[in-house]
Amino acid sequence: MTYQELVNNYNNYSDEQLLEVYDRLGDYSSEAKEALFYIVKGRGGIDILLKNKEEKLRDTAEIERIQEEVMALKKVPFDLDFLSQSISSDSLNEAQIKDVIQNALEEKSRDIEDRKLKPRTFIAGIPAAILATILAGIMWGLQLMWSGRMFLIILIGVILLCYGTIKAFTKQSYKNAAVITLTIISTLMALLMGQVMFEVFGRQ
Q1: Helix ranges (DSSP H) in the chain
Q2: CB–CB of 144/194 below 8 Å?
Q3: DSSP letters along 141-169, please?
């Protein structure tokens, strides 16, 4: 690549990508180094890029800390203004803290709803488990009939098919005890169904 092409290429890089290239500077040609230095200089210099990276890492750590504090709370909803005043940060301003807390509270509420045993969990989950058992059972049975062997990747596929079907019907995840229980039952029944198919029809 020519010098101008390298300049155009590096100009599309993010600051983080430029720093990654800078860390491996010895692997690049003189033209690439010159182009890199030109772009870095235009963005304030390497010291500014490093300072910005440190600030982003610090802000990310602060965001994670605040999120963990909110997620550790026992009850929701909490008063957003109260939490904003009680949780402080050395790097985030008040508006940023409030935004992080709001997002964390919403995530916590979704998590609580996900774990709840609702009528829909069973009304939708049981038919989903039956359907998953049939589909996964046929898949497991055909695999045994065609190969006469048990493949781990197919077993994983059976588990994922059962879980995915139940999750899609219930709109709840593995965090829900009923979803996990139905997935386990569906998987075991599918394996049993596949084994019965193999014993009845034999190797094909």
Answers
A1: 3-11, 15-23, 30-42, 46-71, 80-86, 94-115, 119-147, 152-170, 177-201
A2: yes
A3: HHHHHHHSS--HHHHHHHHHHHHHHHHHH
- For the stretch 71-109, pLDDT in tens is 887 665 566 777 777 788 888 888 888 888 888 888 888
Instruction: Please tell me the predicted confidence (pLDDT) of residue 40.
Output: 92
Taking a C-beta distance cutoff of 8 angstroms, is the pair 49, 43 a contact? yes
Give the integer Cα–Cα distance in Å for 166 and 20: 43
Residue with tokens 């709370």: 73
Looking from the CA of 131 toward its CB, the CA atoms found within 13 Å total 13
Contact by Cβ (8 Å): 159, 183: yes
Alpha-carbon distances of 172 from 22, 110, 165, rounded to whole Å: 45, 10, 11
Burial class (CB in 10 A: 0-12, 13-18, 19+), 84: middle
Contact criterion met (CB below 8 Å) for 148 and 203: yes
